[in-house]
Design goal:
alpha/beta, 5-stranded mixed β-sheet, two-stranded parallel sheet, about 40% helix
């Protein structure tokens, strides 16, 4: 972790621990080194720092490429090694940047739903994440966040302290068969595989709730 990332990481841990009484489940399931894709549900602006704060390694986030144009914001995003993507997150340049980060041994956080939920429920995934996953050989870890919709969802202009939040990391998803098939199948089948992968991710995320494992407080 560089100094800026470490500072934000420490602040996030203190915030979630003392203001939102966080719970962390199974962070040991995320590799400490090497490439990894973390796929999480998305309910709040709290989700990225919450997922990252539960881990003892740098996590790379996605940022809209237009934000990198602003001097201070752009400097901060580049310093924490955020990955620039277009507004929809499906552009070729964004995909290349994600894959380059994974090839360099980084861990990337992706949201299959694409945007924050409006009602607190899990949403249908976008097929674009299937493309990203298939193009990489990195292990894929499902992640589920809890409580962030009530703490700071779309309907709240400001965070609501003392609403408990939590994050749970699942076991890696076995996608070897689909990745192998994708190397030799037709274009039509390839599109189906992207959709299957996206659906598989959301199914595994859904399986992570409710809390069943013993929580840790790192």
């Amino acid at each position: 972790m560089n100094l800026l990332y470490f500072s934000v990481w420490v602040f996030s841990r203190l915030l979630f621990k003392f203001v939102f009484r966080w719970q962390v489940f199974n962070p040991e399931r995320v590799p400490q080194r090497g490439p990894a894709i973390l796929a999480s549900n998305h309910a709040s602006y709290f989700d990225p720092p919450l997922v990252g704060a539960g881990l003892w390694r740098t996590l790379h986030y996605l940022g809209r490429e237009d934000l990198f144009k602003y001097p201070v914001i752009g400097w901060g995003l580049r310093t924490v090694q955020a990955v620039p993507v277009d507004r929809d997150g499906g552009g070729a340049a964004g995909l290349r940047a994600i894959l380059d980060q994974l090839l360099a041994g980084g861990a990337i956080l992706l949201f299959p739903e694409g945007t924050r939920t409006r009602d607190g429920k899990l949403q249908a995934p976008r097929a674009g994440i299937g493309l990203t996953v298939i193009k990489s050989d990195a292990p894929v870890i499902p992640v589920r966040v809890f409580g962030t919709f009530d703490a700071f969802g779309r309907r709240h202009a400001l965070p609501r302290p003392f609403r408990r939040v939590g994050v749970k990391y699942g076991p890696p998803i076995d996608l070897q068969g689909l990745r192998l098939e994708a190397k030799h199948c037709s274009k039509a089948r390839l599109k189906e595989i992207y959709r299957e992968v996206a659906q598989k991710l959301m199914q595994e995320i859904e399986k992570l709730g409710p809390y069943t494992d013993k929580a840790t407080f790192p």
